[in-house]
């Protein structure tokens, strides 16, 4: 049987690893966790417990009803720096479809490190980090059209730049 602590650890793992959805089955209880938007925080995580037997239904709903929300990361995110799109275009996280991405969550970047490419009217522009630090979160998906000023990444600046 899954208890609230195990479900909260799954939620923390989702947020830490920037996962959108996770499903887990333990006996007759199935737990599906899904984050509803592109740049969610812990408070946006939806917990859905779908029991396969009526006997478990009361226990599962009690788990959800008695759950305590995970602490918000709003304070931690105040220290993060956004890399914003300097133009309208299509976002590419790698130099070509078969290549490894320029950066991912956890990547260390220096000032001038290429983090992505934006395409506008068949012209490809490299977007570079303006601050040294660690990529905390990617905010857009590959091949997604982005707007001018739209945040693309969140970086936790290294201590030398603060």
Explain what this protein looks like in three dimensions.
This protein has 162 residues and is of the alpha+beta class. It folds into two domains: 71 residues, no CATH class; 83 residues, RNA polymerase II/Efflux pump adaptor protein, barrel-sandwich hybrid domain (OB fold (Dihydrolipoamide Acetyltransferase, E2P)), CATH 2.40.50. The chain contains three helices and eleven strands, in the order H-E-E-E-H-H-E-E-E-E-E-E-E-E. The strands form three sheets. The chain has a four-stranded antiparallel beta sheet, with no helix packed on it. A hairpin with a 2-residue loop joins strand 1 and strand 2. The radius of gyration is 19 Å and the shape is elongated.
Strand and helix layout:
Layout: H1 4-16, E1 21-26, E2 29-34, E3 46-51, H2 54-65, H3 74-77, E4 81-84, E5 89-92, E6 108-109, E7 114-120, E8 123-128, E9 133-138, E10 145-146, E11 151-157
Antiparallel strand pairs: 1-2, 2-3, 4-11, 5-7, 5-10, 6-9, 7-8, 9-11
How would you sum up the global shape? elongated
Q: Would you give the CATH topology of the largest domain?
A: OB fold (Dihydrolipoamide Acetyltransferase, E2P)
Radius of gyration: 19 Å
Q: Give the oligomeric state of the chains in this entry, treating copies of one chain as homo and distinct chains as hetero.
A: single chain
Helix vs. strand class:
alpha+beta
Can you identify the CATH class of the largest domain?
A: Mainly Beta
Number of helical stretches of at least 4 residues: 3
CATH superfamily of the largest domain: RNA polymerase II/Efflux pump adaptor protein, barrel-sandwich hybrid domain
Termini separation: 46 Å
Biggest sheet character: 4 strands, antiparallel
Low-confidence parts? 38-45, 47-56, 68-72
- Per CATH, the architecture of the largest domain is Beta Barrel
Q: Tell me the strand order in the biggest sheet.
A: 4-11-9-6
Report the strand count.
Answer: 11
């Amino acid at each position: 049987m899954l208890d609230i602590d195990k479900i909260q650890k799954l939620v923390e793992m989702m947020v830490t690893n920037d996962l959108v959805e996770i499903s887990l089955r333990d006996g007759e209880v199935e737990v599906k966790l899904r984050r509803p938007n592109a740049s969610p925080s812990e408070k946006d995580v939806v917990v859905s417990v779908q029991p396969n037997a009526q006997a478990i239904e009361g226990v599962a709903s009690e788990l959800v009803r008695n759950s305590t929300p995970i602490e918000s990361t709003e304070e931690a995110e105040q220290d993060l720096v956004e890399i914003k799109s300097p133009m309208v275009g299509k976002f590419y996280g790698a130099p070509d479809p078969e290549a490894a991405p320029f950066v991912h969550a956890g990547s260390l970047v220096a000032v001038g490190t290429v983090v992505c490419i934006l395409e506008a009217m068949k012209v490809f522009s490299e977007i570079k980090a303006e601050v040294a630090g660690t990529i905390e979160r990617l905010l857009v998906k590959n091949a997604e059209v982005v707007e001018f000023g739209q945040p693309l990444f969140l970086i936790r600046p290294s201590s030398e730049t603060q």
